């Protein structure tokens, strides 16, 4: 069967079905009186039905695609409203900014401390100059020393860290720190990586492990056993894990943790901890604020130092011991401290006062009767 094609003038590509239909009208085909009223042949009827089916499928596909795009576009506006059109000032009391100058200075100091702790010393100095913030050298010195040693460790230079650990050996031992041993171990591993030529030097350096033999006996045995495979190559031996680069990341983390503990600094800056806590707490507080305003509950939230509900920030943000009274199910405070009874059980002072009957107190957990005055306050 012969095929015929319809080419539109001025077009180099064959037209699609939709463009063909849109540009098709009776002017393209001259009238033929002989064909008027003549029924279509079976072949032509089949071709026409296939074309109609393709056109219908194409139109349905376009409608479906348009529906998906419209659904996605409509969600964009809701996402913008949800993420960028939130008023967070309502969860903060206006009284916080009464002493604006003092609060601004505290915030600037927190930012400067964060920059020093992150090693951005030049940025911190620039901020101090522009904000006319006076920072003592005694405050800067621990951060300067900490970042100097960390930069050396990132360049795989153990000298400054070892010198610092030796000079603070006694205080590190009081903290049960293994920093000095790990530094000596890493230096020994570097000598092992040098091959058989460094064997005698490694054996000589192993004398530094003597003060740590009791606490790190197993690790020292592993390192000494690796000398047997030194001529064959440690990378193909059972001791290949000693050459793992993760040891450098571990020593940086250990040094940062122990040095901050020794110098009285937090591992993470107060600004970063506050920011992370705020990201967790703000959505909850904003929801509470919206519910309070909707239900017109006055006096529920007074914007004082305590929140209307307890917000779980995770174990990472736990810095102090917390005791909740098993009787009243309330967290103890300075005005309601935990009290230890003679029998050993601990309850809050408010619970103790409620349980007094006739000048006597009966423990709610055991039948022991006792004098309420014998209870002792516990400080966690």
Any overview of this molecule?
Among the domains are: 136-263, no CATH class; 324-377, 2-Layer Sandwich (Herpes Virus-1), CATH 3.30.40. Helix 3 packs antiparallel against helix 4 (121-130), helix 5 (137-154) packs across helix 6 (159-167) and helix 8 packs antiparallel against helix 9 (199-205). A 3-stranded antiparallel β-sheet has the order 2-1-6. It has a 3-stranded antiparallel β-sheet with strand order 3-4-5. A hairpin with a 6-residue loop joins strand 4 and strand 5. It has 13 helices and 6 strands. It is 51% helix and 4% strand. It has 380 residues and is mainly alpha-helical. The model is unreliable at 1-30 (pLDDT under 50). Its EC number is 2.3.2.27. One of its GO terms (biological process) is proteasome-mediated ubiquitin-dependent protein catabolic process. It is found in: Cytoplasm.
The whole-number mean of residue pLDDT values reads: 79
What value does the Rg take, in angstroms? 39 Å
**H/E topology pattern:** HHHHHHHHHHHHEEHEEEE
Counting helices, strands and paired strands, the structural category is mainly alpha
Percentage of helical residues?
40-55%
- Spatial shape: extended
Arrangement of strands in the largest sheet = 2-1-6
Unreliable residue stretches: 1-30
Q: State which percent range the strand residues make up.
A: under 5%
> What is the total tally of β strands?
6
Number of helical elements:
13
N-end to C-end Cα span: 97 Å
Largest sheet: 3 strands, antiparallel
GO cellular component, one term: cytoplasm
Main location: cytoplasm
Organism: Rhinopithecus roxellana (Golden snub-nosed monkey)
Keywords: Cytoplasm, Metal-binding, Zinc, Zinc-finger
């Amino acid at each position: 069967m012969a095929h015929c094609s319809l080419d539109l003038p001025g077009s180099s590509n064959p037209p699609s079905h939709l463009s063909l239909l849109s540009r098709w009208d009776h002017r393209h085909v001259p009238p033929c009186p002989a064909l008027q009223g003549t029924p279509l042949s079976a072949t032509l009827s089949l071709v026409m039905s296939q074309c109609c089916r393709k056109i219908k499928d194409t139109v349905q596909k376009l409608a479906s695609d348009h529906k998906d795009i419209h659904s996605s576009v409509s969600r964009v506006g809701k996402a913008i409203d949800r993420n960028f059109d939130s008023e967070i000032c309502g969860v903060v009391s206006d009284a916080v900014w009464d002493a604006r100058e003092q609060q601004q200075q505290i915030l600037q100091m927190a930012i400067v401390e964060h920059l020093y702790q992150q090693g951005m010393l030049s940025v911190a100095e620039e901020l101090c100059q522009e904000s006319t913030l006076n920072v003592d050298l005694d405050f800067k010195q621990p951060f300067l020393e900490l970042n100097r040693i960390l930069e050396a460790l990132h360049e795989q230079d153990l000298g400054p860290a070892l010198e610092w650990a030796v000079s603070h050996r006694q205080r590190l031992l009081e903290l049960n720190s293994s920093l000095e041993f790990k530094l000596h171990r890493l230096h020994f591993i570097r000598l092992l990586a040098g091959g058989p030529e460094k064997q005698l030097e490694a054996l000589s350096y192993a004398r530094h492990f003597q003060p740590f033999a009791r606490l790190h006996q197993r690790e020292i045995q592993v390192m000494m056993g690796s000398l047997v495979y030194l001529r064959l190559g440690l990378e193909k031996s059972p001791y290949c894990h000693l050459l793992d680069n993760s040891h450098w990341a571990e020593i940086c983390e250990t040094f940062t943790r122990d040095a901050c503990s020794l110098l009285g600094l937090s591992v993470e800056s107060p600004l970063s901890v506050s920011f992370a806590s705020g990201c967790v707490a703000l959505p909850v507080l904003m929801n509470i604020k919206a519910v309070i305003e909707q239900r017109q509950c006055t006096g529920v939230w007074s914007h004082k130092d305590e929140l209307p509900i307890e917000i779980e920030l995770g174990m990472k943000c736990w810095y102090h011991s917390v005791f909740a009274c098993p009787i009243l199910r309330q967290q103890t405070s300075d005005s309601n401290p935990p009290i230890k009874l003679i029998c050993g059980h601990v309850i809050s002072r408010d619970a103790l006062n409620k349980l007094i009957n006739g000048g006597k107190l009966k423990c709610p957990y055991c039948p022991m009767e006792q004098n309420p005055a014998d209870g002792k306050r516990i400080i966690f």
